[in-house]
Sequence to fold (381 residues):
Amino acid sequence: MPEEETQGEDILDVVRDFRFNSSSDRYNRDYQDWRRFSKSHYAFRFMKNKKERVYVEGTGFLNSGAAEATRTALRRVGKVIGIALLVYLLCDLGGSALLVWIFQRLGFHVSGSLFSTQMYGSQWGIVFVKMIDIFLRYALTALVLQCCFRLPFSVCASYRPTASSDVLQGSALALLVGTVVCVLSDLTGTSQLSQQLLYSYTNGKAVLVYVMYEITFASMLIEMLYRGMLLPVLRQFGDKFAVSVIVLIAFLQPNSLPYRIGEALLGLLCGYFMLRTGSLFCCYLIRIAYVLTTFGQLALDSNQVDRHTIHRIYVLITLVALVSFVVMTLIRKQRKSKAYICNQCLYLSTQDKLAAFFSSTTMLPWVAVMILLGMLQIFQG
Fold:
């Protein structure tokens, strides 16, 4: 064996050993370049000669280093993500009240209270407040992350086309998830927090503008935050770890229980397809399919459709989604498949990685507040 090849095997390089294997070669290359050459302090890079060992008295020789480097990097990344999520929480709790105060000074007949989603007055004014509030929540959170992580635009906003079979397969599963959420919402008598203000509205144009905004622009912002910024950074420590953490973050965000479950399931779905395709555009279309299903429930309830007809519609959507998924799966089986979720980053166990990430000085308070808010919501509901 040549000497250079032997030396290469003796060197532990976490970036070299990482498998960049989405179906988009450009995404793989740009993501690898960010990890290898970025000036960001949050790109996880570690190299060590495997033959180097440290002697610890009473223990013996240890061949360690990667585990502690992973733990340190996780805490550093967790601190930034915690700050960003606390910014999101602050905007969520007090952003609407601040915007209501500004709109009142501008002459709009809008009123509301601090830490409450309830608003009264002009329906157009309330819709504008909600739209700006959604934009500021995600834009400020993304700004905090981008200032630290410095992800290239081709990674955090990779809106490049992908195979239609991927989009159709993911959208079919999203329809199934949306149907499950609608059924759970119907059984529990709850609705998504962002949709509750629309049930009493009589201005059809205002409702339509808000619904289109959530389906298109808000969906793009959410996917850019979760799959565009959080996933690439967390993926450095393992594919399954990254998807699991984002699912947990989405589940803990304030919402009614059926929609928390829906966001968690959608997080699994979009996370997998992001790793598979390297295209945020695919995840964006998958989320649109999900949001269309959930807003469909709002349309049915607003038109006072009887429950029997609604249940038949749910069954029809389920059948169409299942058939589409099966057809797309059969089509994909004819192609050469890859193991897309394969990076495990086994320098630390999953338990140790979660402990290091969530024990950072900002993630721990955020998790505590989210659990407290969730308990309050359950007891008040």
About this structure: The chain has two domains: 3-62, 66-380.
